[in-house]
């Protein structure tokens, strides 16, 4: 594999290379499950995927990019374009051990998600996984955060899918052909509820002139922190918890899906947003999980929610900001907890609403800046932090999707734990399912999979409690 | 997993933690193949191994050690003893994809050998691998070099084996029970030819008083460098080759075995040592491989051969020195090449012969010191080096060995490529087979598996050429 042209690397990308350590790999992952089509075995589907993927040798530039070498000590400042791909390395096949249960699959993902990507080649991997007793075939993909954020990665995967079960044009997600707009594709996902609230509809990268507005935006945040007691200002102290400790590289991954309609019904019942339902589920589940571990803090957890600034047009870049909210995990009563969560997110959105995209980006950077210092040993233990964990929601297409006739039957995000942020929860909605992916540092967060049961219990609580009296 | 007592870590161990980078993982590996016993399927053998291994919960202290945390910037200076093991993490099961050929197995090892071990837990992994079409079951193990060198790791594995095919006491290599000397074990391996030459029979670590002899030893080396033109003095310039470049983390692993008797017959034919036969095979193979890559240097490759200072009594420590030899890869004629190799190793042994163990250790350190600087970016490209690659030979038991009745049918070492040393060849003799394991940096050494064919060609050359006229 020889190197090609060298290309400038913006700091929004290189920061993910610089922040990466052996205990904090900075790649995002995705786990997709497919049902073989009629009269097709899982083995045949896996072979078909492998064949079609390896036939896609005209490769999108994103999947040929690698940090220019030799690395200099000051960090990576350029991308180099590889000419070809060592498919034997990047595309891996494996069969799960018996009994081929979902837990065997989640364990495989856990064990592989802690391994760093090789920087001397394009930083992505695809694992084609057979052996599930239920007859499905799984794809686990890893891509470095410097190449794509979770939203972008999800869109890359979805671009290979179609709403037409009879379409047999299935190909690899790196196929350059996918960038040509002549094929029938699923409708673009609607902007997320949050990004619609922000009104962020421009490509942040191209709007450098907006940077001038950053200082007034910061002043606005300060004002909100003073006058609105529901607003969680950046750098406000979040409690010490077992989520906020140094971590090792080993991971634990849990995933499950719920019908989107159940969450939507709960939102309608209480006249709250879909996102508030997600936060309320997470809040109840985290409260129970921490209580089980004898580690529930007296004060509420604070959550950071990344908000995508992606628009329908742009594709291959990182563009996020974030808001902070109080999860009310210190409140035992589910109704009162929900009320506090709704008040907190409404206030945070109030601040983001009036910001332009680049201003929001600055807000995001202010909220997450302690992360940059996390790899310094000892830092995590002694620094006040603004939040305890990140929870992301990523909306995808609502229709059923197919790859070469095989139906997508689950699409779980696998995100990034960090020093001081040992757990991450990301939820994507695809084809009527709300897919939760929970990734945690293995040694620090035992029995993480119990959160799945706790999420169900919390959703049932929302479904059964009296409709929320807002403003009460 | 909670931490226990803290224990001093000597520099001979911590150096492997300090020298480790994401592109240069410092763990050694082993790949063992087992034949199921009569009337047993591969699946049943794999289940049996898994069950028996997980039942071994009284764990040797070596497999509970991890670097004390938090790490300090000056390096790791202490071991911490874990109380228990997260078996779900350390013991992994997998089934190879079809067609289940040896190349599928070697690829699995290649892909996993580039991944760093987690420092927040005891630094080892065991992979139980099924799916080989030939019905064998493979065990791939990784252990950090700070815990054990290749010789020690091989002995740990062998301690679980017995010469009795009817013995059903098979257990895990971490079983504390194995350290109690009441079980029937294979005879201890004979000291290697090289270590017998050195006369190194003491435990180097305990002989600190010998350090006083180090300066005269250094003077002796200098004298040999001046008076004996066959002796390769430390730090003499070795040629620039594609083996001596910065590397990425991805690996390529090739392995094959030959009957020990074929190599012994070649040694007898030419009245040379077994080790000279190994070097001659490697020399011919490397000459062909580099020539294929259009990368054969005008000057000969220089090889570094670690020499074990292990004695029969000591077990769990690093104790090696090294000699340097000229491989004569610049010589086209096989007979002349062999003659030059024999002259070079005889001379190097001449120096080592008169050294005491700690003096030999000092010689080894002098020969390998540039490695310590390799992780500094740019260093590799600009520094003269004393050798181009390391070739190790590790003798094991000669008898057939069994685990719970399953016959050991191959035992390949998986060693460590480094910055500036992109290839490593290690050979172990076990139960009548000479098992070559060749590990290389993936991007830097394409088509590495061709060396296996070249080794065979070189051995045939040795078998067919006229007996060597020594001193001619």
From TrEMBL, chains A, B:
Q: Which residues form the O-acyltransferase WSD1 C-terminal domain?
A: 318-462
Top enzyme class, one word, equals: transferase
Q: Which domain of life is it from?
A: Bacteria
Q: In which pathway does it act?
A: Glycerolipid metabolism; triacylglycerol biosynthesis; Lipid metabolism
Could you list the residue ranges that cross the membrane?
none
Q: What are the alphabetically sorted keywords of the record?
A: Acyltransferase, Glycerol metabolism, Lipid biosynthesis, Lipid metabolism, Transferase
Ranges for domain O-acyltransferase WSD1-like N-terminal come to 14-278
Q: Name one Pfam family in it.
A: WS_DGAT_C
What Enzyme Commission number does this protein have?
Answer: 2.3.1.20
Keyword Lipid metabolism listed? The answer is yes
Reactions accelerated catalytically: an acyl-CoA + a 1,2-diacyl-sn-glycerol = a triacyl-sn-glycerol + CoA
UniProt record similarity statement: Belongs to the long-chain O-acyltransferase family.
Name the UniProt record assigns to this protein: Diacylglycerol O-acyltransferase
């Amino acid at each position: 594999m020889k190197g090609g042209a060298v290309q400038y690397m913006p700091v929004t990308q290189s920061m993910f290379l610089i922040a990466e350590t052996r205990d904090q790999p900075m790649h995002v992952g995705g786990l997709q499950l497919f049902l073989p089509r009629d009269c097709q075995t899982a083995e045949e589907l896996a072979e078909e995927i492998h064949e079609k993927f390896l036939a896609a040798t005209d490769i999108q530039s994103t999947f040929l990019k690698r940090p220019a070498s030799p690395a200099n000590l000051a960090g990576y400042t350029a991308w180099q374009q590889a000419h070809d791909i060592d498919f034997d390395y990047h595309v891996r096949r494996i069969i799960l051990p018996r009994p081929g249960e979902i837990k065997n699959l989640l364990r495989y993902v856990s064990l592989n998600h802690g391994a760093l990507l090789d920087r001397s080649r394009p930083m992505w991997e695809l694992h084609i996984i057979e052996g599930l007793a239920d007859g499905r075939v799984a794809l686990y993909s890893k891509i470095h955060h410097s190449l794509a954020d979770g939203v972008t990665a999800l869109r890359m995967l979805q671009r290979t899918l179609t709403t037409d079960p009879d379409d047999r044009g299935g190909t690899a997600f790196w196929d350059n052909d996918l960038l040509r707009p002549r094929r029938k594709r699923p409708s673009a996902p609607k902007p997320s509820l949050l990004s619609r609230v922000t009104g962020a509809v421009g490509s942040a990268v191209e709007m450098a002139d907006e940077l001038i507005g950053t200082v007034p935006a910061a002043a606005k945040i300060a004002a909100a922190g003073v006058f609105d007691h529901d607003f969680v200002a950046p750098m406000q102290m979040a409690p010490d918890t077992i989520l906020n400790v140094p971590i090792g590289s080993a991971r634990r991954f849990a995933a499950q899906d719920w019908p989107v309609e159940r969450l939507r019904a709960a939102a309608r019942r209480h006249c709250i947003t879909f996102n508030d339902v997600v936060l309320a589920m997470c809040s109840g589940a985290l409260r129970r999980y921490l209580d089980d571990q004898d580690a529930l803090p007296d004060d509420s957890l604070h959550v950071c929610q990344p908000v995508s600034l992606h628009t329908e047009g742009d594709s291959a870049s990182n563009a996020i900001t974030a808001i902070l909210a109080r999860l009310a995990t210190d409140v035992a009563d589910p109704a009162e907890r929900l009320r506090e969560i709704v008040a907190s997110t409404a206030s945070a959105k109030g601040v983001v609403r009036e910001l332009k995209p680049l201003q929001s980006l600055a807000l995001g950077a202010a909220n997450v800046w302690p992360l940059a210092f996390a790899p310094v040993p000892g830092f995590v233990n002694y620094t006040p932090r603004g939040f305890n964990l990140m929870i992301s929601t990523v909306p995808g297409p609502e229709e059923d999707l197919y790859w070469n006739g095989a139906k997508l039957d689950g699409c779980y995000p696998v995100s990034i734990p960090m020093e001081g942020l040992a757990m991450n929860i990301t939820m994507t909605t695809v084809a009527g399912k709300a897919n939760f992916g929970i990734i945690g540092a293995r040694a620090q967060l035992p029995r993480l999979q119990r959160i799945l049961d706790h999420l169900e219990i919390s959703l049932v609580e929302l479904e059964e409690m009296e409709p929320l009296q807002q403003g009460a």
